[in-house]
Every structure is written in structure tokens, then in C-alpha cells.
Amino acid sequence: MSLPAVLLPLFVEVVLTFALMLRMGALRGRDLRSGAVKPQDVALREPNWPQRTAQAANSFSNQFELPVLFYVLTILEWVTRHAGVLFVALAWVFVICRVLQAYVHVTSNTYRLRSTFYSVGALVLMVMWAIYIVQVLTGT
Description:
This protein is mostly helical and 140 residues long. Helix content is 80%, strand content 0%. It has a single domain, classed as Up-down Bundle (Four Helix Bundle (Hemerythrin (Met), subunit A)). α1 packs parallel to α5.
């Protein structure tokens, strides 16, 4: 598998993270400028942001949970030359689930739908890791 094919899902996840950061920053700036939030009310990470802003911040924070394991696995897959078609296909499923989860998180925030995307992505990532571990331990 080519390096661009292996890394493209990772790049999409990185772009998603930065997009969520920018959305969170824009919403926080708006809230501070409008006076909806006072700096002293959030200076120590108190949860005093309006709902939409908190949703964006939570979605941004989520990108530093499961995706960290995805980043590590992608690098390991490439370095150890195990990244093949199955890995890339599963990587795309994982990243699409992350994008959909983030979209739901910052829009309707429908918990059932958001948790479904999260769960599918988490399961796919677990399968990806299981496959990799077996490949490494068996030398295949």
C-alpha cells in the first residue's frame, strides 16, 4: 500500500481536529465578545460556556481520546510494513465514524446517534489493533 493511501485517513482525522478547534475558538470568542461569558467564569475550565460552545469544545476534546490509538496504529502499520488494503479500508470506516460523530456532536447532539457512531468506530479500531497484534506476534 502506498504511503499516501495509508496516511490519507489520518490526515482527514487531523483536519477534523483542527476544524473542531477553529469552531470552538470562534464560538468561544463570540461568547466572550458578546458578554454571554465572562473570562473569570471560565478561567479554570469551569463548565460555564453556552451549550453550543460546550458541544464544540467536547467534540474537540474527544479527538484526543480514541484517535490517539488510531494515530499510533497508523504509524506502526507503516513502519512495520503491515499496512494493506484491509487496514486502509478499516481506517476509512473509523475516520468516517469520527467525522459523523463530530457532526452530530456539534449539531443536533442526538446522543443515541452520536454514541452509535462512536461505538462503531471504537469497535473498528479494536479490530484493527487485534489484526495488527496477531500479524506482529505470528510474523505474518
